């Protein structure tokens, strides 16, 4: 995936993302925590055809769904590694 980051003065930061298959979308992160997920119809399109506004908690929930491993699973794995380290065992992958 290609990611292009741009600062938008007075608004926030926009990340334009292009997938391997050529899909183009962007995430605008406002200073107040709100996020916009914008979808583009083609590489040449300057204006998105859809703009979905997410409050901070909605963006967090969406991000949780997009992780390849859930936060709960990652925390559990870290707890296992910490337990092994504190009991003198070398961690395994």
Outline the structure in words.
- The protein is α+β, with helices and mostly antiparallel strands.
- It folds into two domains: 1-54, no CATH class; 56-93, no CATH class.
- It is 29% helix and 34% strand.
- The protein has a five-stranded antiparallel β-sheet with strand order 1-2-3-4-5.
- A hairpin with a 3-residue loop joins strand 1 (2-8) and strand 2 (12-18).
- It is elongated and about 55 Å long.
- The two termini are 26 Å apart.
- The mean pLDDT is 87.
- Residues 1-69 form the Potassium/proton antiporter subunit KhtT-like N-terminal domain.
Count of the separate structural domains: 2
Overall average residue pLDDT: 87
How are strands sequenced across the largest beta sheet?
Answer: 1-2-3-4-5
Task: Give the C-alpha Rg.
Answer: 18 Å
Strand content: 25-35%
Low-confidence stretches: none
First and last CA, distance: 26 Å
- Helix count equals 2
Largest sheet: 5 strands, antiparallel
Gross morphology:
elongated
Question: Which oligomerization state do the chains in this entry correspond to?
Answer: single chain
Class based on secondary structure composition and strand pairing: alpha+beta
**How many DSSP-defined strands?**
5
Q: What are the salient characteristics of this protein?
A:
93 residues; alpha+beta; 2 domains; 5-stranded antiparallel β-sheet; 5 strands
């Amino acid at each position: 995936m290609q990611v292009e980051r741009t600062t938008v003065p007075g608004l926030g930061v926009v990340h334009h993302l292009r997938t391997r298959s050529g899909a183009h979308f962007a995430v605008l992160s406002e200073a107040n925590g709100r996020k916009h997920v914008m979808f583009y119809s083609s590489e040449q399109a300057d204006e998105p055809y859809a703009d979905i506004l997410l409050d901070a908690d909605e963006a967090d929930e969406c991000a949780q769904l997009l992780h390849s491993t859930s936060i709960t699973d990652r925390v559990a794995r870290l707890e296992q590694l910490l337990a092994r380290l504190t009991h003198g065992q070398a961690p395994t992958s």
